[in-house]
């Protein structure tokens, strides 16, 4: 490996610390020297320093920005009380308050909450819960899950099994992942704003109808094996930033009802306002049986996720052989994380209805010029999500560097250069993001 010339910190890191989906001898990482508001202070591998708008919101979780005074205060206040206690046989105010808050704002009648360490773990819990539910209902042979192609639900084993079987990591673990039932990816859709300010979803109606028929047929063929339907509502995130029509979610709700399945929605990336609704399920007026939330839950301060479920699900588990949900992390309902989460959710509730549409409007304006580039296949936005999809794979290293020179931190993948910025970005910050992405794509890919 060539000697790195950038930050001494990055030099110490390289070859010592694993980074997500990166080899030990991969490119030298960028070093963060500071973070405040929506900006990162970054040292590049060539030693240059940059002040950049974080267009990623730290993988979609830092929706309130960095060093947020409200979240800082919540963390300091809880540190002065206690930072952690076990949740076995004990409870505490931050956890109970957070559970009350989440069940109050969730789509549909959610009555119970299970706290987990991370998004992936919350999906694991939801899948285990579904199996326990079916066993409690006298259907223990229902051990598989119906999901759709293009999905992503985490990197742990059960979660990986319901990720896309081709674009996911199935091939790296042959024989280790459970074989699930995969329907086609839902047909793509766009959300338009009418002249009267109303939302209108557009899609290929014939394709949607054909997709719905195939899903119903597939569910019917496997009905005695299936425990639940698992899906990211309206927006598939790491599977390709794919937007689909809410009618597809309604079809999945109907299929679940027709076959006695639970509908599990993964709102880890889409929850707390990101798509233009507090929860993406609300675009379809669908009430899930089980819902996973994470990421923005703590505003990026600490790792925490939650699994919400209906009273019917909770009662079935309580009447079952084991009576308990068979999971119990050491850091379950960590008081420090729950205290910050209470503050984060309160901030979301008070501001997302203004901030998310504003960010989305400016993103749509600023990313639109990318559609004129020959290397661009599509430009789309939904809520505070903006996507530039190329006609070929992104040159990640060069696009990242080109965007950073323009004052923007991005993390492209596959054929996508996208942004899911903090909600607290000002209009000027969003313009910098849009111009930076378009400029970087034009410079590198032409």
TrEMBL record:
Gene3D superfamilies: Aspartate Aminotransferase, domain 1, Type I PLP-dependent aspartate aminotransferase-like (Major domain). It comes from the Bacteria. SUPFAM superfamilies: PLP-dependent transferases. The record marks 21 as: Participates in the substrate recognition with KAPA and in a stacking interaction with the adenine ring of SAM. It catalyses: (8S)-8-amino-7-oxononanoate + S-adenosyl-L-methionine = S-adenosyl-4-methylsulfanyl-2-oxobutanoate + (7R,8S)-7,8-diammoniononanoate. Its cofactor is pyridoxal 5'-phosphate. Pyridoxal 5'-phosphate binds at residues 119-120, 266, 329-330. Substrate binds at residues 59, 152, 295, 328, 411. It is found in: Cytoplasm. The modification N6-(pyridoxal phosphate)lysine is found at residue 295. Keywords: Aminotransferase, Biotin biosynthesis, Cytoplasm, Pyridoxal phosphate, S-adenosyl-L-methionine, Transferase. Its EC number is 2.6.1.62. Its main location: cytoplasm. InterPro entries: Aminotrans_3 (IPR005814), Aminotrans_3_PPA_site (IPR049704), BioA (IPR005815), PyrdxlP-dep_Trfase (IPR015424), PyrdxlP-dep_Trfase_major (IPR015421), PyrdxlP-dep_Trfase_small (IPR015422). PANTHER family: ADENOSYLMETHIONINE-8-AMINO-7-OXONONANOATE AMINOTRANSFERASE. Homodimer. Catalyzes the transfer of the alpha-amino group from S-adenosyl-L-methionine (SAM) to 7-keto-8-aminopelargonic acid (KAPA) to form 7,8-diaminopelargonic acid (DAPA). It is the only aminotransferase known to utilize SAM as an amino donor. Belongs to the class-III pyridoxal-phosphate-dependent aminotransferase family. BioA subfamily. This is Adenosylmethionine-8-amino-7-oxononanoate aminotransferase. It comes from Terrabacter lapilli. The lineage of its organism: Bacteria, Bacillati, Actinomycetota, Actinomycetes, Micrococcales. The gene is bioA.
């Amino acid at each position: 490996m060539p000697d790195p010339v950038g930050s001494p910190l990055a030099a110490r890191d390289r070859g010592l610390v694993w980074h997500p989906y990166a080899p030990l001898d991969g490119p030298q990482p960028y070093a963060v020297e500071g973070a405040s508001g929506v900006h990162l202070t970054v040292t590049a591998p060539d030693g240059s320093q940059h002040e950049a708008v974080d267009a990623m919101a730290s993988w979609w979780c830092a929706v309130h920005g960095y060093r947020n005074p409200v979240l800082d205060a919540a963390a300091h206040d809880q540190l002065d009380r206690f930072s952690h206690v076990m949740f076995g046989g004990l409870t505490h105010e931050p956890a109970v308050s957070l559970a009350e808050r989440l069940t109050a704002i969730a789509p549909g009648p959610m009555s119970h909450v299970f706290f987990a360490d991370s998004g992936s773990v919350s999906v694991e819990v939801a899948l285990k819960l579904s199996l326990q539910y079916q066993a409690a209902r006298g259907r223990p042979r229902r051990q598989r899950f119906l999901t759709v192609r293009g999905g992503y639900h985490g990197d742990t084993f059960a979660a990986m099994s319901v990720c896309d079987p081709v674009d996911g990591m199935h091939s790296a673990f042959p024989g280790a992942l459970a074989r699930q039932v995969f329907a086609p990816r839902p047909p793509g859709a766009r959300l338009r704003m009418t002249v009267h300010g109303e939302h209108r979803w557009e899609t290929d109606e014939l394709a949607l109808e054909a997709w719905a028929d195939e899903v119903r047929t597939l569910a019917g063929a496997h009905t005695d094996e299936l425990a639940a339907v698992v899906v990211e509502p309206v927006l598939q995130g790491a599977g390709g930033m794919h937007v689909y029509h809410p009618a597809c979610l309604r079809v999945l709700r109907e299929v679940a009802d027709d076959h006695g399945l639970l509908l599990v929605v993964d709102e880890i990336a889409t929850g707390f306002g990101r798509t233009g609704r507090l929860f993406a399920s609300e675009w379809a007026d669908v009430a899930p049986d089980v819902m996973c939330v994470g990421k923005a839950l703590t505003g990026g301060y600490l790792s925490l996720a939650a699994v919400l479920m209906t009273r019917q699900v909770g009662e079935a588990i309580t009447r079952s052989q084991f009576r308990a949900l068979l999971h119990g992390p050491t850091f379950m309902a960590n008081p420090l994380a729950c205290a910050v989460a209470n503050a984060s959710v309160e901030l979301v509730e008070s501001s997302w209805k203004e901030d998310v549409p504003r960010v989305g409007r400016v993103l749509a304006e600023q990313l639109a010029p990318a559609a004129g580039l020959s290397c661009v296949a599509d430009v789309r936005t939904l809520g505070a999500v903006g996507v530039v999809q190329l006609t070929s794979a992104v040159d990640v290293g060069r696009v990242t560097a080109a965007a950073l020179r323009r004052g923007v931190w991005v993390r492209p993948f596959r054929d996508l250069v996208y942004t899911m910025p903090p909600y607290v970005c000002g209009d000027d910050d969003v313009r910098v993001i849009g111009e930076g992405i378009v400029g970087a794509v034009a410079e590198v890919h032409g």
